[in-house]
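Sequence only, no structure available. Ideas?
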Amino acid sequence: MSYEIRMILFLGIFIIASLCLFDVLVDYLLVNYRGGILRVMMRLMMDSPFNYWPGQDEEMLQALCEPLS
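Reply:
I predicted one. Tokens follow.
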């Protein structure tokens, strides 16, 4: 088997494995955090990031630290 074919096979397997692991990670985050990750992501992707209010960091940390018990 030539070098190019082996490299293409390796990269294909690597990409598929990476996608599977990313899917498992996303499922884990969605199951174990009640929307906390999604709330933080929405806050970080706001259209106007300059609307900073006191306590914004605390709210983000609280959203990240709310595991399902």
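Residues 3-32 form the longest helix (30 residues).
Hope that gets you unstuck.
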